[in-house]
Design brief:
This protein is α+β, with helices and mostly antiparallel strands and 90 residues long. The protein has one domain. The protein contains 1 helix and 2 strands. It has a two-stranded antiparallel sheet with strand order 1-2.
């Protein structure tokens, strides 16, 4: 018995030029055991990420409801805890 599913795999563009990585959608046909073994560590990470994303969303919505009218809120999204570079324009 085979399960058909899709996965995202990391593909490097060009290591010599130090290009960023990109993702490729791949079709997989595997046994159920392979699929479950593959997904188990990813589900742990996903559930933790989902918990924190929901908590942050609730906190942000609560902040917007209770913030004084003369206060400005800046939103900076640190995706995957990567750093950021300051822009010179809005």
């Amino acid at each position: 018995m085979q399960w058909q599913w899709y996965t995202m795999s990391v593909v490097r563009k060009d290591r010599a030029r130090n290009d960023n990585k990109c993702f490729k959608l791949e079709y997989m046909g595997t046994s159920p055991k392979f699929f479950l073994d593959y997904m188990k560590p990813k589900l742990t990470t996903f559930t933790e990420h989902n918990f924190f994303a929901r908590w942050k969303d609730i906190q942000f919505k609560d902040l917007l409801l209770t913030i004084p009218k003369d206060v400005m809120v800046f939103v900076i999204d640190f995706i995957e805890n990567y750093g950021f570079k300051v822009q010179n324009e809005v």
